[in-house]
Amino acid sequence: MPIILISLIMPGKIKVIIDRNGCISCTTCWNLCPDFFEQNQKDAASQVVEKYRIENNPGEGEAPEKLEKMVRRAADLCPVQVIRISL
Ligand code: SF4
To answer: Whose CB among 8, 30, 32, 45 lies 3.0–4.6 Å from 37's, allowing a Cys bridge?
Structure first.
Protein backbone atom coordinates (compact mmCIF):
# COMPACT_ATOMS: atom_id res chain seq x y z
CA MET A 1 0.00 0.00 0.00
CA PRO A 2 1.57 3.33 -1.02
CA ILE A 3 2.38 5.79 1.65
CA ILE A 4 0.71 9.08 1.03
CA LEU A 5 2.23 12.06 2.71
CA ILE A 6 -0.09 14.94 3.17
CA SER A 7 1.50 18.27 3.85
CA LEU A 8 -0.62 20.76 5.69
CA ILE A 9 0.63 24.21 4.97
CA MET A 10 -0.67 26.64 7.54
CA PRO A 11 -0.76 30.28 6.64
CA GLY A 12 2.02 32.21 8.34
CA LYS A 13 1.33 33.88 11.62
CA ILE A 14 3.55 36.10 13.68
CA LYS A 15 3.55 36.53 17.42
CA VAL A 16 3.39 40.09 18.67
CA ILE A 17 4.20 41.32 22.15
CA ILE A 18 3.52 44.88 23.27
CA ASP A 19 5.36 46.11 26.34
CA ARG A 20 2.31 48.11 27.36
CA ASN A 21 4.07 49.77 30.30
CA GLY A 22 6.45 51.45 27.88
CA CYS A 23 3.79 52.67 25.46
CA ILE A 24 3.53 56.46 25.27
CA SER A 25 0.18 56.41 23.41
CA CYS A 26 1.61 58.10 20.35
CA THR A 27 -1.29 56.63 18.26
CA THR A 28 0.95 55.30 15.47
CA CYS A 29 0.19 51.59 15.74
CA TRP A 30 -3.58 51.75 15.99
CA ASN A 31 -3.81 54.40 13.30
CA LEU A 32 -1.62 52.33 11.00
CA CYS A 33 -3.19 48.95 11.71
CA PRO A 34 -6.54 49.30 13.50
CA ASP A 35 -7.44 45.70 12.63
CA PHE A 36 -4.77 44.55 15.07
CA PHE A 37 -3.97 47.38 17.51
CA GLU A 38 -6.30 49.57 19.54
CA GLN A 39 -6.11 51.98 22.45
CA ASN A 40 -7.10 50.64 25.86
CA GLN A 41 -9.80 52.97 27.17
CA LYS A 42 -8.66 52.70 30.81
CA ASP A 43 -4.89 53.13 30.67
CA ALA A 44 -4.64 54.68 27.17
CA ALA A 45 -1.87 52.29 26.13
CA SER A 46 -1.85 50.17 23.00
CA GLN A 47 -3.30 46.66 23.09
CA VAL A 48 -4.05 43.82 20.72
CA VAL A 49 -7.70 43.71 19.61
CA GLU A 50 -9.60 40.92 21.34
CA LYS A 51 -9.91 38.79 18.20
CA TYR A 52 -6.17 38.27 17.88
CA ARG A 53 -5.13 38.04 21.56
CA ILE A 54 -3.32 35.06 23.00
CA GLU A 55 -5.11 33.80 26.13
CA ASN A 56 -6.95 37.11 26.32
CA ASN A 57 -3.74 38.96 27.18
CA PRO A 58 -4.03 42.50 25.77
CA GLY A 59 -0.25 42.66 25.42
CA GLU A 60 0.15 39.51 23.32
CA GLY A 61 -1.33 38.46 20.05
CA GLU A 62 -0.99 36.46 16.88
CA ALA A 63 -1.25 38.41 13.66
CA PRO A 64 -2.57 36.64 10.56
CA GLU A 65 -0.57 36.74 7.36
CA LYS A 66 -2.83 39.38 5.82
CA LEU A 67 -1.91 41.86 8.59
CA GLU A 68 1.77 40.98 8.89
CA LYS A 69 3.10 43.80 6.72
CA MET A 70 1.22 46.53 8.58
CA VAL A 71 1.96 45.07 12.01
CA ARG A 72 5.67 44.98 11.15
CA ARG A 73 5.49 48.53 9.89
CA ALA A 74 3.83 49.67 13.13
CA ALA A 75 6.58 47.93 15.13
CA ASP A 76 9.25 49.65 13.03
CA LEU A 77 7.64 53.06 13.49
CA CYS A 78 6.88 52.78 17.21
CA PRO A 79 8.96 55.65 18.63
CA VAL A 80 9.79 53.78 21.83
CA GLN A 81 10.19 50.35 20.19
CA VAL A 82 7.88 48.48 22.54
CA ILE A 83 6.30 46.26 19.89
CA ARG A 84 8.24 43.00 19.54
CA ILE A 85 7.65 40.46 16.80
CA SER A 86 8.65 36.82 16.63
CA LEU A 87 7.65 33.88 14.47
S1 SF4 B 1 3.38 52.95 18.31
FE2 SF4 B 1 4.32 52.32 20.25
S3 SF4 B 1 4.21 54.12 21.60
FE4 SF4 B 1 2.83 54.47 19.88
S5 SF4 B 1 0.83 53.81 20.62
FE6 SF4 B 1 1.76 52.05 19.57
S7 SF4 B 1 2.86 50.88 21.14
FE8 SF4 B 1 2.38 52.90 21.98
So the answer is: 30
